[in-house]
Amino acid sequence: MEAQRLLSGFCSTPPIQNTKTQVFVKFPLSSSSASFAQSQKWVSFKACPSISQSALSGKVFQCRNSRERIEFLASDKEDLRSGIRRKKLAVFVSGGGSNFRSIQEACLRGSIHGDIVVVVTSKQDCGGADYARDKGLPVILFPKTKLEADGISPADLVATLRRFEVDFVLLAGYLKLIPAELIQAYPRSILNIHPSLLPAFGGKGNYGMKVHKAVIASGSRYTGPTIHFVDEHYDTGRILAQRVVPVLAKDTAEELAARVLREEHRIYVEVITALCEDRVIWREDGVPIIRSKENPNEYS
């Protein structure tokens, strides 16, 4: 069936195809993004009427099984109290997505001055992707691999994030190397969280339970999550924040992982809150620091 288009303003084209609970939408792109338009790749999400307002700000469309027009109001206006524009976030996941869930919950309760507008996954059936669809968030598959043949290219990924007007990219258990095209398109705007005190126990292949087992085997007395900006390599970008977690004498990897994860959820939300409030400052030597909300003259 011929693809229907999602248009800004009134949707005059026939309703979008709805297959059971899955809705597929292709965005009209500018001529500069022709390669994406020709790729016939799709952004998917569940249950058309349940999509959050922030997900498709300013767009109107209609489902095949409903004549009701669904309109999404613009969410990028300045906050009348703070004067700071509400930010649009993209989250990348490859697994269960517990950090993604904590970020989404913080956005919904107003702790973070921003909204998750799109989720990118390297595994279309992972827990994080399923959670995103259940919450009505658009999901993009990247990259294209032998196991995930429907994935899009780096150029298509950048074009799609631009269409969603993404301000910041947040990696939350995303296991693929970020392509140079995305890093160049979003300088100083991509964050990752790692479950050790970088630069220790970082690099390719060091993720998840592997990290905690290595920490215990090394005899380290302390570990904890690190949030850093992303560059072209694994875990080598500028460190923005860390939280220390003691390694107990009789810790198992599972016990240590659980304590580190609790701190991950806290520190990632705190850092994203600062990021969305424009409180991340870069020193002249290229080191990022966070300005205190309570005292603008203090930094961490």
Automatic annotation (TrEMBL):
Q: Where is this chain's protein located in or outside the cell? A: Plastid, Chloroplast
**InterPro entries, per database record:** Formyl_transf_N (IPR002376), Formyl_transf_N_sf (IPR036477), GART (IPR004607), GART_AS (IPR001555)
Pfam families annotated for this entry?
Formyl_trans_N
Using the UniProt record, name the top-level EC class of this enzyme in a single word: transferase
The pathway noted for it is:
Purine metabolism; IMP biosynthesis via de novo pathway; N(2)-formyl-N(1)-(5-phospho-D-ribosyl)glycinamide from N(1)-(5-phospho-D-ribosyl)glycinamide (10-formyl THF route): step 1/1
Is Chloroplast there in the keyword field?
Answer: yes
Q: Which residues form the Formyl transferase N-terminal domain?
A: 87-272
Give GO terms: molecular function aspect only: phosphoribosylglycinamide formyltransferase activity
Q: Which UniProt keywords apply?
A: Chloroplast, Plastid, Purine biosynthesis, Transferase, Transit peptide
Record keywords: Transferase included? yes
Query: Which source organism?
Result: Prunus persica
Catalytic activity reported: N(1)-(5-phospho-beta-D-ribosyl)glycinamide + (6R)-10-formyltetrahydrofolate = N(2)-formyl-N(1)-(5-phospho-beta-D-ribosyl)glycinamide + (6S)-5,6,7,8-tetrahydrofolate + H(+)
Q: Which family would the database say this protein is a member of?
A: Belongs to the GART family.
Source superkingdom: Eukaryota
Q: What is its EC number?
A: 2.1.2.2
Write the protein's name: Phosphoribosylglycinamide formyltransferase, chloroplastic
Instruction: Provide a GO CC annotation, any one.
Output: cytoplasm
